[in-house]
């Protein structure tokens, strides 16, 4: 049986899969952060099994940079969806372009926007999965409110192992999220200390 979710139903259904992410390493503090990578999480919800092979990039400010989700739903509902998740402030009619290496870009139309992100999606085909397995880089391009293209490169290294391999266990995911939270807190503390040091230095500087 094949039943289609609408965008909001699908967004609510996969919410339990927790789009865990990693911050790019920049400096000693950021080395504590687990590296961004492809991985798969699966969850049983009602009569459906839902697996999401994902890659998420988040800045050290906790702001989303971009995310890619390959969602496979099986059971009472059968559906495959390719999603690109980008920040808000996008030109909606422009949609999102996904390009694997030098192949022809694929257009994804926006389906729903939340306060912190917008989701564009299209039906996931076997051909796209095969191209991603062979490819090196997936370029995700959205158009910001200044009507400027905003391309983000996502590595495809590790995609095949994640897509075809077993899902991450819940304890491992929980540990990964804890590592991320601790690293982000450390970065926030380091920024606060630098700000206070700069203020102290400014007060102690002799008047000109």
Task: Give the SSE layout.
Blueprint: H1 7-13, E1 39-45, E2 48-58, E3 64-75, E4 79-86, E5 96-100, E6 106-114, E7 117-123, H2 126-134, E8 137-143, E9 149-155, H3 159-164, H4 170-204
Antiparallel strand pairs: 1-2, 2-3, 3-4, 4-7, 5-6, 5-8, 6-7, 8-9
Brief account:
The chain has 208 residues and is α+β, with helices and mostly antiparallel strands. The protein has four helices and nine strands; from the N terminus they run H-E-E-E-E-E-E-E-H-E-E-H-H.
Mind explaining what this structure looks like?
With 208 residues, the protein is of the alpha+beta class. It has a single domain (7-202), classed as Invasion associated locus B (IalB) protein (Immunoglobulin-like). 27% of the residues lie in helices and 35% in strands. The chain contains four helices and nine strands; from the N terminus they run αβββββββαββαα. The chain has helices at 7-13, 126-134, 159-164, 170-204, and strands at residues 39-45, 48-58, 64-75, 79-86, 96-100, 106-114, 117-123, 137-143, 149-155. A nine-stranded antiparallel sheet has the order 1-2-3-4-7-6-5-8-9. The longest helix has 35 residues, at 170-204. Mean pLDDT is 78; it is low at 11-33.
């Amino acid at each position: 049986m094949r039943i289609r979710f609408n965008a909001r139903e699908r967004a609510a259904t996969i919410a339990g899969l927790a789009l865990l992410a990693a911050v790019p390493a920049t400096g000693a503090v950021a080395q504590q952060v687990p590296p961004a990578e492809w991985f798969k999480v699966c969850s049983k919800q009602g009569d459906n099994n839902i697996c999401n092979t994902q890659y998420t990039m988040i800045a050290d400010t906790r702001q989303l940079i971009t995310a890619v989700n390959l969602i496979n739903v099986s059971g009472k509902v059968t559906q495959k969806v390719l999603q690109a998740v980008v920040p808000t402030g996008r030109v909606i009619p422009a949609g999102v372009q996904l390009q694997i290496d030098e192949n022809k870009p694929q257009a994804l139309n926006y389906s729903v926007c939340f306060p912190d992100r917008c989701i564009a999606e299209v039906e996931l085909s076997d051909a796209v999965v095969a191209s991603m397995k062979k490819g090196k880089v997936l370029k995700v391009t959205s158009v910001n409110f200044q009507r400027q293209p905003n391309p983000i490169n996502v590595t495809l290294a590790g995609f095949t192992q994640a897509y075809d391999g077993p899902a991450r266990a819940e304890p491992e995911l929980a540990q990964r999220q804890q590592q991320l939270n601790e690293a982000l807190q450390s970065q926030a503390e380091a920024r606060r200390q630098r700000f206070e040091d700069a203020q102290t230095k400014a007060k102690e500087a002799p008047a000109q």
